[in-house]
Amino acid sequence: MRVVIADDAVLIREGITALLRSSGAEVVAQAGDAEELIRQVREHRPDVAVVDIKMPPTHTDEGLVAAQRIREEEPDVGVLVLSQYLEPSYATRLVAEHPEKVGYLLKERVFSGDVLLDALQRIRDGETVVDPTIISLLFGRRRRQDPLAVLSGREREVLALVAEGLSNRAIAARLFVTERTVEAHVGQVFTKLQLPESPDAHRRVLAVLTFLRG
Predict the structure, then answer these.
(1) Tens digit of each residue's pLDDT (9 = 90 or more) over 152-175
(2) Is residue 134 part of a domain?
(3) Are both 41 and 121 inside the same structural domain?
(4) I need a surface site. Which of 20, 33, 149, 183 has the fewest CB within 10 A?
(5) Radius of gyration of the chain (CA)
(6) Do 7 and 83 belong to one domain?
(7) What is the pTM of this model?
(8) Residue 31 pairs with which residues in a beta bridge?
(9) Do both 9 and 65 map to the same domain?
(10) Number of H helices and number of E strands within the chain?
(11) For residue 67, how many other CB atoms are within 10 A of its CB?
């Protein structure tokens, strides 16, 4: 897997680079700001760009804007956005506008090499990955006009794990059920949310988008 890393903190860039290289990924370039990130992505066409959400000059949402621009200009390039703080609105904004090949994780999560590599692989393969802390927070904010109200408790639980980017096999292991049981729950989620017939990978993304918008 070929990766570009963008963060204005050199130590964080180098730390992520070391983690990825030790896991067998190829870091083809680094960037310290959004414009350099765009240039490196255009030049190297990586599988995924890892982007800090706040970068110079204002340290607000430059990374998020750059991520959206990458998804528009380079649809084959996935984007994993990292944030120091819990900001669900940014996750929703990113996924709502470009619901495939994107991810949003807290920075503390990625200093586990296995977690980071797994997220990047899923994004490269067209999935959506959202930090489980944000999933928990969004569940706590559900309102009466909840599009997920049609789902059973177990189906909502499965959908939350889908939103984290877990495969059916991983969900089965987490919930101590069979993979076939998970497949049945996912199928029910698709049916109850009235998601159009399409490849399962795409419908998983649509389901996550429904979850985030709920």
Answers:
(1) 989 989 988 888 878 899 999 999
(2) no
(3) yes
(4) 149
(5) 17
(6) yes
(7) 0.70
(8) 6
(9) yes
(10) 11, 6
(11) 31
Number of domains in the chain: 2
Mean pLDDT is lowest, of 27-31, 59-63, 133-137, 173-177, for 133-137
Whole-angstrom distance, CA of residue 67 vs CA of residue 181: 36
Tokens at residue 194, please?
A: 């009235």
Paired tokens of 88: 């669900």
Residue 136 lies in a domain: no
Runs of H (alpha helix) within 46-131: 62-73, 88-97, 107-110, 113-124
Q: How far is CA 128 from CA 33, 102, 160, in A?
A: 24, 5, 12
Domain hosting residue 80, numbered range: 2-128
Angle between helices 168-175 and 179-192 (to 10 degrees): 110
Orientation angle between helical segments 153-163 and 179-192, nearest 10 degrees: 100
Residue among 53, 104, 101, 94 nearest 77 (CA)? 101
Q: Which residue has the tokens 């292991």?
A: 173
Buried b (16+ CB within 10 A) or exposed e, 43-54: ebebbbbbbbbb
116 neighbors 110 (Cβ within 8 angstroms): yes
Q: Which two tokens stand for residue 76?
A: 């084959």
